[in-house]
Write a structure and sequence with these properties.
Blueprint (H helix, E strand, L loop, with lengths): L3 H31 L6 H26 L10 H12 L4 E4 L14 H17 L4 E10 L3 E9 L8 H5 L14 H12 L2 E8 L2 E9 L4
Parallel strand pairs: 1-2
Antiparallel strand pairs: 2-3, 3-5, 4-5
Helix pairs in contact: 1-2, 2-3, 2-4, 4-6
Length: about 220
């Protein structure tokens, strides 16, 4: 059994760490502008604008990944695709999420399933320590089965051995760390949807598959 308070503490630590960079850069740019004799106002403004964009997109992304979702309702995948693309802008990771796997092509998933996609993106990006490409594919067979496939491919990809441990039945509070808390939360969201989680390693690529049977939200 995992202590929910400990999980919340670890997730908050992760969020604060990830947001410190862009927010700190905004503050630095503002300090530069306030200095007498500073003659690089254009560069300072550019730093503020780009860092503010990064901070806002990260907040929006994490709100989608961690925020509360309604039990019913369909997600706008075109909006989610753009939000995810903005999140990786300026990073070493390229997002490959084609329109043929959004509602623009008739794909339909629940709000909670879209939240799961964002958590899978976080797990996948954690493996691409040197950058690479993350792919998103969504398949559905009638109304009875939906499958999410998130791939991560890049040089020096690092797939944490603790992932198997997180999905074991014996995983408990003492096993929860800043490194595996994201994977554990993803597992919880999978369980909430009645979905299965599997992955396959192939050299410098990992394919993560989540399959949902039936008519769960």
């Amino acid at each position: 059994m995992v202590d929910e308070l400990r999980m919340a503490e670890l997730l908050c630590t992760r969020l604060c760490h990830d947001l410190t960079g862009p927010i700190g850069a905004v503050n630095n740019g503002a300090e530069f502008l306030s200095e007498e004799g500073f003659n690089l106002q254009g560069q300072a403004v550019e730093l503020i604008v780009s860092s503010a964009f990064s901070a806002v997109t990260r907040l929006q992304f994490y709100r989608m990944a961690y925020g509360q979702m309604r039990d019913h309702g369909e997600a706008s995948l075109a909006d989610k695709q753009k939000l995810a693309s903005d999140f990786f802008t300026g990073s070493k990771i390229t997002l490959d999420w084609p329109e043929s796997h959004t509602d623009a092509a008739g794909v339909s998933i629940s709000l909670k399933m879209s939240r799961l996609i964002f958590n899978l993106l976080i797990v996948a990006s954690g493996a691409l320590i040197r950058g690479g490409t993350i792919g998103v594919r969504i398949m559905q067979e009638g109304g009875s089965q939906r499958q999410l496939v998130v791939t991560a491919q890049g040089p020096g990809m690092k797939w944490d051995d603790e992932i198997d441990k997180v999905f074991s039945k014996n995983f408990g509070s003492d096993d929860l760390t800043p490194r595996n808390v994201q994977t554990y939360l993803t597992r919880r969201f999978c369980e909430e949807l009645g979905a299965s989680f599997n992955y396959q390693l192939d050299g410098e690529q990992v394919n993560i598959q989540v399959t949902q049977q039936g008519t769960n939200p």
